[in-house]
Amino acid sequence: MIKRLNRILIYLLVLLAVFLSVAPIVYLLITSFKEPELTFAIPPVWNFTPTWLNYNVVLSSSNFGKYFINSLVIALSATGIALVLGTLAAYGFSRFRFRGHFWLRISTLIPQMLPPITLVVPFYVLFSGLDWIDTLPALIISYLTFTIPLSIWMMIGFFDDVPIELEEAAMIDGCSRFSALIRISLPLVLPGMAATAILGFLYCWNEFLYAVILTGRDARTLPVIITSFMTNRSVHWGRIAASGSLVLIPVLVFALLAQRYLVRGLARGAVKA
Description:
By secondary structure, the protein is mainly alpha-helical. It has helices at residues 2-32, 53-61, 64-95, 101-107, 110-113, 120-129, 136-161, 164-172, 177-188, 190-206, 209-213, 222-227, 237-257, 259-267. The chain contains 14 helices and no strands.
């Protein structure tokens, strides 16, 4: 009886967690198909004729395509660079012990401990001097300050789980250290790399603070464009919901394509590492 009650309680908690996670997204999608006058109708209107008006306005009047490409280029570039550099650094931290190893490893957490706003002024001064304000490289570099530490600490846990004896056996058979990394260790940590890539991509895709301060018009990203539908006179919630729904699409596609690796990666404790 007690076991049955515990199981029911667990199911209820899971359903509650799923509801709290999915309900805002469902409400966002519903709002995006409503006429403006129905957005905040009291009581809420659930039986309505869907309209594509909000999506037509977003796609036709806000340079959405250009800023979509900006977001995609920035997110993929920052994620790819961070994954390569973070994986190599994590391998070094996991396999080698040297003087200052502990403190150097801890120092990579400093950017994660700082509020992002603390780095805005240094970045702005630096990129202004380089004439990089409102450029894609400026955003990519600023995002690396957070995605590289994330990649390092995620991947350290995975490399620690790979027995070093496998690499030693490969090196006895004639492999170099780098060849052992490529042929032995990397295939075993692919789930961790996928999980790390998805989390890094999500951070870059959704980042707002740097994107709004370090850009003007040319390098804007989608999160910045969403706020353009808020004016002094009115807030176009339907258009905000439509643009928010469009922003979700690449994230969902990316997550679905790497779902197998993501689940395996998180299950093996990458986040905890």
